[in-house]
Design goal:
Elements: E1 2-4, E2 17-21, H1 29-36, E3 44-50, H2 54-58, H3 71-80, E4 85-89, H4 93-96, H5 100-110, E5 113-119, E6 123-124, E7 130-131, H6 132-142, E8 145-149, E9 153-154, E10 157-158, H7 161-169, H8 173-180, E11 185-189, H9 196-199, E12 205-208, E13 219-227, E14 230-239, E15 252-257, E16 268-279, H10 286-305
Parallel strand pairs: 1-4, 2-3, 2-5, 3-4, 5-8
Antiparallel strand pairs: 6-7, 9-10, 11-16, 12-15, 13-14, 13-16, 14-15
Helix pairs in contact: 7-8
Amino acid sequence: MQVLSTFGELRSLPAPVFWAIGFFDGVHTGHVRVVQAAHAPGALRGVLTFCCHPLELLCPQRAPRLITPVPDYKARLLQEQGAEVLLRLPFTRELADMSPTDFLDALQAHSRVAGVSVGANWNFGKARAGNAAFLSEQGKQRGFEVRVQPLLQLDGGTVCSGAVRVALAEGRLDDAAAMLGRPFAVCGTVEHGQHLARQLGFPTANITLPPHSAVPPAGAYAVACRHAGRLLFGVADLGFRPSIREEEKLLRLETHFFDFSGDLYGQPLTVALLHFLRPEQKFSSLSALQVQIQRDSAAARAFFQAQNEEKFNFLPKF
């Protein structure tokens, strides 16, 4: 997949593009329909999105926490759905001030537009003045096809990024997974910590999450991921490590993988949170923490033993 960051770079594309346009936070099942609808003979499937949520610029206090805050993870998910070109525009004041017509002018001035696919609730342009109906009319005038995807319904509710965020915040991992079409996962690069878990006999792979991440409640989870072609199971602590004295408290996922030995430092991991074990708590001593990790590990192992391993074959392979 070719990743671009400016309109001007589109001139290098060798073929027309059928664009799926949206922010696509979470790349949930509704987003997947929009992306997969962006196809036509002889055209590239493109995704046009933004580096940050528009509200981060326009109204920071209302900006949502992001389900997929790591750009590379979001890009991989979009590529998995068939995206061949990803145009990831910085959301600047200049872009925010573009009228819907100016936005389409810029897109057509730099690429041959075979079509545009959006969700039924898509708005674009200054003050969100453009909508799906306006886009459809513009497509007729400009000579490209417009496909508007109806909002996906699941169990009586609409699948949207906001609904996924609510499900995560309330700890409803299964509901979030149903809307996402996969388990909720944390993606990041494994970094060095204080090595306290290793001293306790439970070495962990530590990932610091962006501060604007949408996550389930802090606590211990049964988790899984794929690494070097191998499916790894483990137990993880998501939270702020209240038992450890630190100058700065950062949101981290600390994962102990069962029956694994190796150096993961500096490597990217995508860790799926599959089952909630207990809330985050503060321990009076490292020995008390060690006892609890042993209990969490046993509980996570029991969870996995009760599952069919084929259930986890759909975990991301990156």
